[in-house]
Design a protein that fits this description.
The chain is mainly α and 243 residues long. Helix content is 63%, strand content 0%. The longest helix has 29 residues. The two termini are 32 Å apart. Its main location: mitochondrion.
Length: 243
Amino acid sequence: MALSRVCWARAALWGSAVTPGSFVTRRLQLGRSVLAWGAPRYLFPRQLLIQHFWTPKQQIDFLDIYHALRKQSHSEIISYLERVIPLISDAGLQWHLSEMCTKIQRGIHPAIHDILALRKCFCNHPLGMNQLQALHMKALSRAMLLTPYLPPPLLRHRLKTRTTVIHHLDRALAKLGVAQLTAQEVKSACYLRGLNSTHIAEDRCRTWLGEWLQISCTLKEAELSLLLHNVVLLSTNYLGTRR
């Protein structure tokens, strides 16, 4: 399948600097498990039973309910971004972030260059990965489909790990090409990255995933907090997501 080639490509990109041991293998298999059925495997310990006994409509309804819970965190995250604007030292970055929050609250889907203009905001205090506050990390965890019920150090570690894994997969996927993925793989890849793709046409999912990859593959490791927040920034107002 297409994503298995992504995993091999990722290993090739890492080269000899990283030996793909059991930890790396498990992380890369996350992509394959995500594309096997709807939402990520780690969400559903009884996934095989659900897939076997539930009708396709029941599975979609379940994903809709889960995504509705996930979206509750979006407004919390945008509100937090607005609150920390005065703490950003660069006046230009303050303006860009304020404009971004205003656009999202007005229902506007931000452009790629608007998001990338914020990359320096997410390197240091207050939005750098190591400076995020506990309540904000809980909201981000819900947006990333991770449990928020952990101590702050563990929340930070899981968010950093999950974002790094997605970043690696993004680079490999960009090298492979979105066109190589099946329709179900594209929808599931979008779902993992924050978009409720169950009711969005395949071509729109491919367009959104292409936008995500353009942003992700531009970012450096120190800027991965922006990729984490992109789960909200890029998905909240995308066409077809409002039901």
